[in-house]
C-alpha cells in the first residue's frame, strides 16, 4: 500500500502479517497492533510524548539485571500481572485464590522441619503459623510441598538488603499426611516496592505510593492439584486498598491474632508479645 496516512496505517501493518489466522501469534500480533494504534489515536500522542515513552522503556531495560526485573515490576504496577493471573486462574468456588508471585522468591530455599523457626534472627514479633491443605470437598491433601517467603518486621527481604548475609524468612516444608503444617517466624511488615528506578518515577508521576500491605507468600505443590501461588494478608493493614501491585483479594485477608507474653502454640514460653495465624488452603484438582 502506498500513500500511508493516519487512517490506513493500521490496516497496512496488519496486512503484512503472513501467519495463518488461526495461529495464536496471529491473534497476539493483531491485537497488539490494533490496540497500540488505537491508544495513539485516542490520546493523540505527540512526537515528544512518543520519544518520552521510548526513553522510559529504554531505562526500564537498563535497570534489568539478574537481580532485578524492572519490566515485571512495570507489569505489576500497571495491573497487567494481576489481570493475567486472574484470567488464567479461574477456579471453582471455595478454592484459594491466586495472586502475584513477586520478584523475591528464591528457588533453593532451606528445607524445614515442621515447627521450625526460619526467621534466622530477623527483627520482628514472633509469629506462630498453622494451617491445613485440602481439596475442594475438604478431602485431605497429604504431604504438599509448601514454599514460604516474606519480608521481616522492618519490611525488608533478605535478598534486597546488602547488609543481610544469607537467607532468612524463607523455607520449604512438607505438610503432614493429614495436610497440616506449622512453622514459626516473625511478623512481616508492609514495604515499598523498589522505587529508585523508572517504575518508581512512573508511580510518582501518577501520584501513587509504592506500598504493599504486609503479607506472607506461599507456593503450594501437591500431586494431582494445580500449583497455588498466593499471599495471606493482615486484616488490619492500612495499605490493603492501595496495594501498588494490585495483589490483594478479599478471600486472602486473615486475622493475625496478637497475644500477650505467655505459652505459645508450640508449648514453649514466649517472654514477649507474639502473633498467631491459622489459614487453610484449598487446592484445585487437575481435571
Ligand atoms: C512481592 O510481594 O514480593 C512483590 C510483588 C510484586 C512486586 C514487588 C514485590
Ligand atoms: Fe512480598
From TrEMBL:
Residues 129-157 form the Intradiol ring-cleavage dioxygenases domain. One of its GO terms (biological process) is catechol-containing compound metabolic process. Keywords: Dioxygenase, Iron, Metal-binding, Oxidoreductase. Its cofactor is Fe(3+). SUPFAM superfamilies: Aromatic compound dioxygenase. The keyword Oxidoreductase applies. InterPro entries: Catechol_dOase_N, Intradiol_dOase_C, Intradiol_dOase_core, Intradiol_RC_Dioxygenase. It comes from the Bacteria. One of its GO terms (molecular function) is catechol 1,2-dioxygenase activity. Pfam families: Dioxygenase_C, Dioxygenase_N. Belongs to the intradiol ring-cleavage dioxygenase family. This is Hydroxyquinol 1,2-dioxygenase. It comes from Cedecea neteri.
Amino acid at each position: 500500500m502506498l500513500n500511508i496516512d493516519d487512517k490506513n496505517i493500521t490496516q497496512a501493518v496488519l496486512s503484512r502479517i503472513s501467519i495463518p489466522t488461526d495461529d495464536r501469534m496471529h491473534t497476539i500480533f493483531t491485537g497488539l497492533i490494533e490496540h497500540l494504534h488505537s491508544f495513539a489515536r485516542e490520546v493523540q500522542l505527540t512526537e515528544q510524548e512518543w520519544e518520552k515513552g521510548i526513553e522510559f522503556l529504554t531505562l526500564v531495560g537498563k535497570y534489568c539485571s539478574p537481580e532485578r526485573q524492572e519490566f515485571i515490576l512495570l507489569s505489576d504496577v500497571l495491573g497487567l500481572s494481576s489481570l493475567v493471573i486472574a484470567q488464567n486462574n479461574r477456579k471453582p468456588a471455595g478454592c484459594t485464590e491466586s495472586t502475584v508471585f513477586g520478584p523475591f522468591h528464591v528457588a533453593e530455599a532451606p528445607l524445614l522441619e515442621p515447627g521450625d523457626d526460619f526467621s534466622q534472627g530477623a527483627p520482628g514479633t514472633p509469629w506462630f503459623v498453622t494451617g491445613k491443605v485440602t481439596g475442594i470437598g475438604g478431602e485431605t491433601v497429604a504431604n504438599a510441598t509448601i514454599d514460604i517467603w516474606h519480608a521481616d518486621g522492618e519490611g525488608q527481604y533478605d535478598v534486597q538488603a546488602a547488609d543481610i548475609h544469607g537467607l532468612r524468612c524463607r523455607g520449604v516444608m512438607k505438610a503432614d499426611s493429614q495436610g497440616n503444617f506449622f512453622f514459626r517466624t516473625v511478623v512481616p511488615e508492609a514495604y515499598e516496592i523498589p522505587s529508585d528506578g523508572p517504575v518508581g518515577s512512573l508511580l510518582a508521576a501518577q501520584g501513587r505510593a509504592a506500598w504493599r500491605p504486609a503479607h506472607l507468600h506461599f507456593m503450594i505443590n501437591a500431586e494431582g492439584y494445580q500449583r497455588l501461588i498466593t499471599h495471606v494478608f493482615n486484616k488490619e493493614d492500612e495499605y490493603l486498598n492501595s496495594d501498588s501491585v494490585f495483589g490483594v483479594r478479599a478471600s486472602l485477608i486473615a486475622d493475625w491474632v496478637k497475644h500477650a507474653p505467655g505459652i505459645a502454640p508450640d508449648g514453649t514460653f514466649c517472654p514477649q508479645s507474639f502473633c498467631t495465624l491459622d489459614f487453610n488452603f484449598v487446592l484445585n484438582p487437575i481435571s
